[in-house]
Every structure is written in C-alpha cells, then in structure tokens.
Write a structure and sequence with these properties.
The complex is a heterodimer. By secondary structure, chain A is α+β, with helices and mostly antiparallel strands. Chain A contains 16 helices and 21 strands. The longest helix of chain A has 17 residues. By secondary structure, chain B is mainly alpha-helical. Classes of the chains: A alpha+beta, B mainly alpha.
C-alpha cells in the first residue's frame, strides 16, 4: 500500500465512509503498530476512539468541593421533565445516558459497553434497528444492579403521553426490546440514518425502573424521586433547593475506576451571567460558570486583568442566529390570520429584493463589534459538525451591489430616498426579542438598508412574549406578523436531520396548527421537500450529508433565511480545573472525568 | 377590645378576597407561558406543551381556575409549581430561613443604627454630629441598593478580596468555622439592606424626637431635676417612638417578602429571588402564593401596628 492509497483510505474515513475501527484494522494488517495508526489518524483529523481522555488522578476522591455556578439554576431533577438545558444539567450530575456526544460530535460510551457500529453488528445494515450492549457491573446509587429492564422502562415511561415527558420526541416512534439482561434493541419503523437519539446525550438519561415504575403515566408528578434522584452517575444526591442549589457527593461505587475526583459537587444558581464570570475568572470563588452570555469585550477584560484566576472556554455547537424573510404577506388578513400561506409577500416575491437583503447584512461588523469570540459570521444555516457544513455558501456585504440589483429590477428611489416600484414602497418592519446584542444587530442592518433605499422600522418584543406559544398574541415569533425577524435556533444533536424540518412545506406555521408548525418563515421549495424526503431514507452517510448540504444551500441561496452568526457556547473555567466540554451535549456530559490540576 | 379585633379580622376577609381576585386576574392576563421554553425546542413535539398545559389546567377559563385555586387555598393547599413540580409551600419553606436571617438582621441593623443616631441628632440639633449624621442619612437613602450592592462587591470582593459575593445556604462546616463563614457571607447583603433602611429610619426618629422634646411636659420633667437619661428614655422616647413603631411594624412584611434586588445581586436564596425567578418562568402558582402570603402579612401587620399603637398610647381607644 503506497502513500496515496493510505491517504485515500484516511480521506474515506474522514468522510465517514469507512469506520475508524475498520481503518485501524487495515493499518494493523499492513504492519503498522496500533498507537502509530491512531496517531496517524489523529493527525489526519479523525477523532480519537471515544472514551480516551487524559485523566491524571490515580484514585477516586480527594479533590474536595467542586463549585459550579449556573445563573439559571436547575428547577427539577427528573431528566424526562427537563424544561430547559438547566434542568438537564442538574439531572446529568446523577443520571447517565448510554452514550454521550463529545465536542467533535462523536459518540462516547457511558452506560453502554461499546458504541454500536455496522462493523460490530450494533447497527443493522438496513437502518431499521440498533443494538446496544450495556456495561456490566453498573449499580444504581442505592445498590440495585442496572440492567436492560431499566432501559426498556425509560422508553415505556417517556413514550407514554400521559407521563407528559419532555423527552417524548426521542421515544414515541421507536420500539425497544430486551434481548438479554444486558442487551437491548431499538427498532425503528423505517430506515433511520440518525439512530443515536434515544438513550443518548441530553435526552437519553436513564432513570431507575425500581423507583419510578409505580409512577409511570398520569401520576408521574407524584414520584418522590423526581426531587431525589437515584442514578448511576459519578455523584450521589445530597440536597436540592429548586432554583438555588444542587449538592452531590462522590459515588464510591462508580463504575469507572479512580473516578470521580471531587468529594462533593455544588451547583449554585441565581444572579446574572456577568457576576458569574467574575466569580470564576476574576476572584476564583468558583470553579466553573455555565453559559456566560456576556459581551465578549467584558470577558476579555476579565481574562486579561491582572492575576486572572480563570479563563473562558468556547465550544461550537449548533446554534445559529439568523434573519428570516417572510414569504407571506404579514399585513393582509385572510381567514382570520395574517402571514397566511394563501398570500405572497408584496416585496419579497421579487428575487432581487431578497438577494439585496442578503447583501445588506454586515456580518463581519456584527461578529467584530457584538459577538466577538462568541459568534462566527457565517453564510450557512448548518455550520457544525463540519461534515454537514456547506462549502458553497459565500456571504458578502456589498451595498453597491445591492443598489445595482435593485436598480436593475426597477426599484426607483423616490424623493424621500426610498425605493418604490408599481406604487409599492420598499418599507419593511424588522422584529426580534429584547436583547442588547440583537438590538445592535438590528441597527447595523437598518443602517445598511437605508443606504440601499430600503426603509426599515425596528421592533423589539419582550422575550417572554416573543418566544411564548400564546396563540392569542400576535407578537410571537411563531405568528411572524412582520416582514423580517431574527432569533437563534439550534440543533440538539450533531445531526441536522430534525433541524432541517423547519423549512418543509408541510411544517408551515399557521392558524390551523395553532402556529405550532416548525416552518416559521413560511418558505416553500419543492426541491427542498424532495431532498428532505430522500435524506430521511438515505443510509449512506456521505450521500445523506450531501443531501443535507444541498438543502442548506437552497434555503440560504434563494434566501428564506439569512444566517448571521454561528453562536458558540461560552463557559468560565478556573485555571486548575480540567474539564472537557461539548457543544453537542450537556456541559456536564463528562463530569466524571473532571479534575483539578495541582 | 376583642370585639374590635373580631371586626378587624372580618373586614380582612373581603379585602383578601379582593386582593386575590386582582392578583389572579393580572397574572391570567399577563402574557407568557410556563412551558414556553419547550416550544422553542425543535426536539420537543408541540403536543407535549399542549398536554402539559392541559394537565395543569392552564387552558381552562380564568374563573374556573380562580375558583379551583381558592378552594385549594381554603384547604391549605398552596398549589403545585409548574416549573419545579413540587408543592409551593415546600418551596417557600425552603427559602424562609435564609430570608428571615438576612432581611431580619438587616432590619435589626437598621434599627440599631437609626435609634441612637436619630435620638442623639435630635438632642443636639444642628451640631456637627447632627450635620454629619444627616448628610450620611441622605446619601444612604438616595443610593439605591443595587448600586451600593455592586459597589460593595467591587470594593470588598474584587479589589480587597476579603468577602465572598456569592451567598451559599449550605456551608459544609461546623462550629465556629461555620459561624464565621456565615457571618462573612452575610455582611455585605445585610449591610446593604440595613444601611439603606437605617438611613431613612434615622431621619424619621430624629423628626419624631425633635417634635416631642420641645413639648412642655419634657421641660417640666427637666425642671423637676430628673437626670437627663431618665428624661430622654422615659419621657421623650416613649412618646416619640409611637409613630416609629408603626413604621417598623408596617415594614415587617418586607422581611418575609425578602429583598428582590439585593437577593439577586448576592445570589441569596430568599423569597425575593424565588419570586423573581417564578415571574421570569411564568410559574403562576408560585407567584400567586408568594404575593398572596405577602398581602396577608401586610394586613396582619397593619392590625398589629394598630394594636401596638393603642398599647403605647392609652389615649387611643378602640371602637
């Protein structure tokens, strides 16, 4: 095998056509040593085998108290009822999923003995089932053994609509069966390329059957263990005050040797993000601060101040701050609703106007002056993991070009400087939630639009109204009774499958579905719908990625949405703390391996 | 006296009912949805939010919801938090000790400052001491607590690094060490609240004492040759403090209500921070319970103030 062949093989592995395991096997056959093969792959950018971590402590315990600050504190500790990520984080201290997502979007086994693959027989070649082998010798905190029955129970519990679990989306369409006490098989109704949803990551935490069995269904809220978790995690439950405090102590019978390092963990809530950043970076009162939604300027000042005791850690996930152009007419009421799918937007029907809008968003300035390190200017709706990020979408900020486009399309400037055509003036209303960075972004867009002869009126709605599901309130982002709007949406797993549903014609938000449809900008494209259908059944990861990328290109090319910045997750970490964070899972996904360098 | 009490208590019932109706109506009319966060999550199907709303009866008419709440309240059931899925009384009881400790000791501090300083200033009006005390008092109550709070954090936590600025309700220590840690973390929030309160009370005590000290019976007492200490304590203070007692009694509900802004700044897990997070999360049962308890306390302490008034000043008769 010559270098070219080897390089091709690595490239194939990189694209996901050959598994890492198969590749290492081939290399070993060539006489290369295993560490060398790993090294080669690592240098080629292929992730390390999951579970490999640089964990230095040689015994469990002795690390003292780990102090973490969550300015939004957990309010409940049953992962199946988690309303936001804060509740998942609180549960994650005590409960574990079968596998977790690392920063690169790769699976790492937790309660599973190994990650299912086609090669090890875990993933069925027809994509209709996946078999999980469970780790041996795992115990719940109360000493009960963990087994396939627990996994089975979690499926039944979450899938029961009467339980009203917030994780139901991951469990309602699957069937789970027990093959033996340590093996379960998840069956899908149709071929499912992205199988790592149930029992994985933030929606996958597993609760014990023996404590929750009596509380499945309508009386789920009465379970005493909703507030006193008994899990398999590295820390055992000590105390919980909703909205204020979660305390855990070291689990002496944890299923990984020498872990965890800390004797106690404390999650303190309340306050605001800026003072949380101070407590970790400046005074060192705390070891870790979650989700520092703080202007980068302030973070930099804290970090660069004399004897800073902590640093900022930024990990990319799947959040995208984007601008939506309404495809329907928000100002005409049809059958009791505005922005009805029966109408067309009076201005955006002209492709020139949409293209001009795309040229008028100064992403570089937004990144530089507003988000700093915490947001990357982008032309893509899907930016991460890199295997799904399109290389085609370019973005540029060019007022002259926008002017030219509008001139050519016949939009003439009036005496007031505002363009008009056929008696229709280029006047737009741009709404978003009340949030300082968003208002600044609005101003930047407005300024550019003004120079191109588009008059833009800015509107900001309180977040609690804007993001509510209130069907009676016309100011929610779902009603979209406006020409242009901006907010952040994100994918929870490193796979855009579910995420890209939000541009399907069948998902359009309307009065009929109480505005619960996912397609809020009401953008429609038959090719997109077809590509999505194809991607649902495409089992070849490369072809599927290509389909998803083409969908991204469609929605940003003939813009239904204008991506602005890829927003990253920001944490504050003390200088001594060693913690691996991931944008694809809860920040506490790898808590068992956290330790303090002395 | 007992007839008066009975009448006052009977009057309290319709006012509490009225308060609860207003509170409930305002909360029902306010926008927002406790499960709003779910709807922005693409992984949670919309039916779940709808099912949860149905389960907690959020889609029922306002009147029905109110009657249900009232009936439960009469049974002593304070409701069930949507957000934490636990009983509201439990949530409030968890927060109560911290609130009583922090806000209670700040009120004590306020009194301890206000009484002697106010009396001394009034005894020697326009002296240097009075001028300084007055100036400080004006500064004290014109600076809002959120400002002094942040100022204290900057000076004592960040520049001097003496005091922690995150209040922890669970200090894992015992004995003197525990007491010391508790003391250290409580200094800043207690001082912020206490100095603010003390400043306005000082002005009040001074005015009250000044009014009394010029009266004829004080002159008479002095003329009798009574020692100054007895004149001040027995003759002046007893009468001057009547309005002050009312003021302090009316302030007591605030001790239970906590201090929203200061609790937020120092992360004190009190009732104020419970209320603010419940409001932000649209957790109506919690908001309802906290505000309702608060209004009950206001009415109760009004009554107590009136009774105390009569006890201190026998000229006031109850009819």
């Amino acid at each position: 095998m010559n270098e070219r062949e080897l390089r091709e093989l690595i490239a194939a592995a990189k694209a996901g056509r050959v598994s890492r395991r198969a590749l290492v096997g081939k290399m070993l056959g060539l006489g290369l040593s295993a560490p060398f093969a790993s090294l080669l792959l690592a240098s080629a950018g292929i992730a390390q085998a999951p579970g490999e971590t640089q964990y230095k402590p040689t015994k469990a315990g002795g690390g003292g108290l780990l102090k973490t600050l969550f300015w939004q504190a957990p309010t409940l500790l049953n992962p199946h009822f988690a309303v936001g990520t804060k509740d998942q984080e609180g549960s994650r201290i005590f409960y574990e999923p079968l596998a977790a997502w690392d920063a690169d979007g790769n699976l790492s086994p937790v309660l599973a003995a190994e990650i299912p693959e086609i090669e090890n027989g875990g993933v069925a070649p027809d994509g209709k089932s996946v078999t999980w082998k469970l780790k041996k010798g795992v115990e719940w905190h109360d000493g009960h053994p963990f087994s396939a029955d627990d996994v089975l129970f979690n499926w039944a519990y979450a899938a029961d609509p009467a339980t009203a679990a917030t994780t139901i989306g991951s469990y309602q369409d699957i069937k789970v069966e027990k093959l033996d006490p340590l093996t379960v098989r998840v069956n899908f109704a149709k071929p499912t390329p992205f199988w790592a949803d149930a029992f994985v990551g933030q929606f996958g935490m597993i609760i014990p059957k023996h404590l929750f069995e009596a509380y499945k269904g309508a009386n789920s809220r009465d379970a005493p263990n909703n507030l006193k978790p008994v899990g398999t995690g590295p820390y055992r439950f000590v105390d919980f005050k909703p909205g204020d405090l979660v305390i855990g102590e070291r689990n002496p019978s944890y299923h990984l040797p020498n872990r965890p390092y800390f004797d106690r963990i404390e999650v303190k809530g309340g306050g605001d993000a800026v003072s949380a950043a101070r407590a970790v970076i400046q005074t060192g009162e705390y070891d870790y601060a979650w989700n520092l939604q703080v202007e980068d300027e302030i973070l930099l000042k804290l970090e660069n101040g004399g004897n800073a005791k902590g640093r900022v850690e930024i990990v990319p996930g799947g959040n995208i701050e984007h601008i939506q152009l309404n495809s329907t007419d928000p100002w005409t009421e049809v059958d009791g609703e505005r922005s009805s799918i029966k109408t067309k937007h009076p201005l955006f029907t002209d492709p020139a106007v949409r293209q001009a809008m795309k040229l008028l968003v100064d992403r570089a300035s937004v990144e530089k002056h507003i988000y700093g390190r915490t947001g990357r200017a982008t032309g893509n709706f899907v930016n991460n993991p890199s295997r799904f990020a399109s290389k085609n979408a370019q973005w540029e900020f060019n007022i002259d070009k926008a002017n030219r486009l509008l001139d050519e399309a016949g939009w003439k400037r009036g005496q007031d400087g505002i363009r008009a055509k056929d008696g229709k003036k280029l006047r737009l209303v741009f709404q978003t939630s009340v949030n300082a960075p968003r208002q600044k972004t609005q101003a930047i867009v407005k300024q550019a639009c003004q120079k191109a002869g588009i008059e833009m009126e800015l509107k900001s709605v309180t977040a609690s109204v804007y993001f509510s599901s209130d069907t009676g309130n016309p100011d929610t982002y779902r009603h979209f009774y406006c020409d242009v709007q901006m907010y952040t949406t994100g994918m929870n797993a490193p796979d855009p499958g579910v995420f890209m549903r939000q541009f399907l014609s069948s998902e359009i938000a309307a009065k009929d579905n109480k505005w619960q449809g996912r397609n809020i900008c009401r953008w429609r494209n038959d090719d997109y719908d077809k590509a999505y259908q194809a991607s649902e059944n495409e089992l070849d990861p490369v072809k599927r990625a290509a389909l998803l990328i083409s969908m991204n290109d469609m929605v940003v090319g003939d813009p239904g949405v204008i991506p602005v910045v890829h927003r990253l997750a920001v944490s504050g970490i003390s200088r001594q703390l060693r913690a691996r964070l991931s944008g694809w899972d809860n920040v506490l996904w790898d808590l068992r391996n956290w330790y303090r360098e002395t | 006296m007992s007839r008066y009490l009975l009448r006052r208590l009977l009057i309290a019932v319709p006012s509490l009912l009225g308060i609860s109706i207003v509170l409930f109506a305002v909360l029902a009319l306010a926008p927002g949805d406790p499960f709003g966060e779910l709807t922005t999550n693409p992984n949670v199907p919309p039916e779940i939010g709808a099912a949860l709303r149905a389960k907690f009866g959020l889609d029922d008419p306002v009147l029905l919801r109110y009657l249900r709440w009232l009936l439960a309240m009469l049974h002593g059931d304070w409701g069930f938090s949507f957000v934490s899925r636990m009983n509201v009384d439990q949530l409030i009881l968890q927060r109560l000790p911290t609130t009583l400790l922090v806000v209670g000791s700040s009120q004590l501090l306020g009194l301890v400052i206000a009484l002697p300083v106010g009396v001394l200033s009034a005894l020697r009006p326009y002296s240097i001491f009075d001028q300084i005390a007055n100036t400080l008092a004006f500064i004290g109550f014109s600076l809002p607590t959120f400002f002094t709070g942040i100022l204290f954090i900057l000076v004592f936590s960040i520049y001097l690094d003496w005091l922690p600025f995150v209040y922890r309700a669970d200090i894992a220590a015992s004995g003197w060490h525990w007491l010391w840690e508790e003391f250290k973390q409580a200094i800043m929030p207690v001082a912020v609240l206490g100095l603010f309160q003390g400043a306005s009370w000082t002005r009040y005590v001074r005015a009250a004492v000044l009014e009394v000290i010029r009266l004829d019976y004080v002159t008479t007492a002095r003329a009798k040759g009574l020692p100054e200490r007895i004149v001040v304590v027995k003759h002046v203070l007893r009468n001057a403090l009547i309005p002050v007692v009312t003021l302090v009694a009316l302030q007591m509900p605030a001790v239970f209500g906590g201090a929203i802004v200061t609790e937020q700044i120092f992360r004190v897990p009190g009732i104020g921070s419970l209320l603010i997070s419940a409001i932000l999360a649209n957790d109506t049962p919690v908001i309802m319970a906290v505000t309702f308890v608060f209004s009950c306390l206001v009415i109760l302490f009004n009554l107590i103030a009136d009774i105390l008034y009569g006890w201190l000043d026998p000229r006031i008769a109850y009819r």
